[in-house]
Amino acid sequence: MKKVSVNKSLFIKNRSKIFNNLKSNSLAIVTSNDELTRSGDQHFPFRQNSDLFYLTGLEQEKCILTFCPNHPEKNLREILFTIKPNDQLETWTGHKYTKEEVQQISGIKTVKWIDDFDMTLRDLALSSEHIYINLNEYIKYESPVFYRDQRVVKNLKEQFPLHQYHRLAPIITHSRLIKEKEEIDLLDQACDITNAAFHRVLKFVKPGTKEYEVEAEMTHEFMTKGARGHAYQAIVGSGKNALVLHYIENSDECKDGDLLLMDFGAEYGNYAADCSRTIPINGKFSDRQKVCYEAVLKVQKAAIKMFVPGNTIDKVNKTVFKLMEKELIKLGLLTQEEVDKQNPDQPLYTKYLMHGITHFIGLDVHDVGNKYEPFKKGMVLTCEPGLYIKEEGIGIRIENDIMVDDNPLDLMRNIPQEVEEIEKLMSK
Ligand code: GLY
Ligand code: MN
Ligand code: MN
User: Fold this and answer.
1) What is the pLDDT of residue 93?
2) How far apart are CA 419 and CA 428, in angstroms?
3) Which of 274, 313, 412, when mutated, tests ligand 1's pocket best, judged by the most ligand atoms within 8 Å of its CB?
4) Whether the predicted pLDDT of 26 surpasses 90
5) How many DSSP H helices and E strands does the chain contain?
């Protein structure tokens, strides 16, 4: 896997946005993700906690970042704790950061070994009134076990019950929502690599191709182009499998006459692309597939214009659902009379479109931010209308990543999506 180097100036800038928004006399703690055991002495692949990466650029487990902006000793105001390298670790898992490397990657001057954390923490906590802890506040997030920050909060509250505790997540979320130029460049690269994978797939797919072979083609293109791999489990669903929104088995054969829905994206420098494309397996859309596809594409083009400052996910959803309802009538799936009489709490379009149209994207594919957050320039979201007709075995989703601006910028504008373009590329 290629190591993508990001200039430390980004992490220094990101930290200053947090540091400057803490109350005076406070301590804030951000930790890396746990390494999780798969079985025996095997671990699941380690992925850095997105907030810790955002603030440091460090990819290693067992790191802790502390801010203590008013500490009397200047060199204790920002500290990074990390594992002390040793021969044993070096032999089994390879190189671990030296203090100098941590400084070079993150721009943090004070680096201590993790073994010194408990003692230093007492000093930091006793110099502070307020303690900020960084719990995961993504609305759908659930963890079956106590994750690291939950353990941190428990331990701290036992040791320092009289401090005032605060949520760090809203401050980091606020900052992560608006992407710096360097972050847009990384997202752009993730989208370009995703585009290369799509071109590869267009040349590859034909009746008889297996869904997992398509996934393998994507993986090959992602990794050789410098991505870590997939930003999330790719969905490669042919025929009726396209109707399963989170179909990740990718085990079936692509059949002549069916559509293939692919929801896939590269992760580059820890930034995710999230793309969906739907193609005819035999290289030519049938008349019915084509009108359905064109309906989704038309809605998507109208929806992209809504990614302007002041809008929200909630408003985009509501407007796009209405647009889709009109298309469903034109496609003969609903009638105007039925729509006029529908129960507003159970609108009829939900039979054919059962997911939201957009979510924030960045270091996480479903990035921080909620549906009421007003859009601002520099935020990036997906735009992903879909149409799922069970009776006809048709599942279509078209998904692009859009940067909010007065003229929204489609980061996936180069990834083919017009019917003629797809058919032409598949005929080569
Ligand atoms: N790839 C997951 C999604 O589109 O939300
Ligand atoms: Mn998405
Ligand atoms: Mn997607």
Assistant:
1) 86
2) 15
3) 274
4) yes
5) 13, 19
pLDDT in tens, 256-294: 999 999 999 999 999 999 999 999 999 999 999 999 999
Q: Is residue 120 situated within a structural domain?
A: yes
pLDDT tens, residue by residue, 182-239? 999 999 999 999 999 999 999 999 999 999 999 999 999 999 999 999 999 999 999 9
Which residues, 6+ apart, have CB-to-CB distance to 356 below 8 Å? 313, 317, 371
Q: Show which of 176, 204, 224 is a domain's final residue.
A: 176
Domain that holds residue 349: 181-427
Contact 384 CB / ligand 1 (< 6 Å): yes
Q: How many domains does the chain have?
A: 2
Do 172 and 185 fall into the same domain?
A: no
User: Helix, strand or coil for residue 163?
Assistant: coil
Q: Residues with beta carbon < 5 A to ion ligand 3?
A: 263, 274, 399
- Identify whether the C-beta of residue 230 lies closer than 8 Å to the C-beta of residue 274: no
Per the CB < 8 A criterion, the answer to whether 157 and 123 are in contact is no
Paired tokens of 123: 């000093």
- Please tell me the number of the ligand nearest to residue 231's CA: 1
If asked whether residues 160 and 196 sit together in one domain, one would say no
CB 274 less than 6 A from any atom of ligand 1: yes
CATH number at residue 269: 3.90.230.10
- Residue 242 CB: number of other CB atoms within 10 A? 25
The pLDDT > 70 percentage for the chain reads 100
Probe residue for ligand 1, chosen from 399, 400, 412 as the CB with the greatest number of ligand atoms within 8 Å: 399
Give pTM, 2 decimals. 0.96
274 and 406 belong to one structural domain: yes
Instruction: At 287, give phi and psi (nearest 5°).
Output: -55, -45
Indicate if 409 and 374 belong to the same structural domain: yes
Backbone φ and ψ for 114, nearest 5 degrees, come out as -60, -25
* Two tokens, residue 250: 């990718």
From the CA of 265, give the closest atom in ligand 1: 1
Domain co-membership, 171 together with 30: yes
Helix (H, G, I), strand (E, B) or coil at 65: strand
pLDDT band at 13 (very low <50, low <70, confident <90, very high): very high
Residues 148 and 241 grouped into a single domain:
no
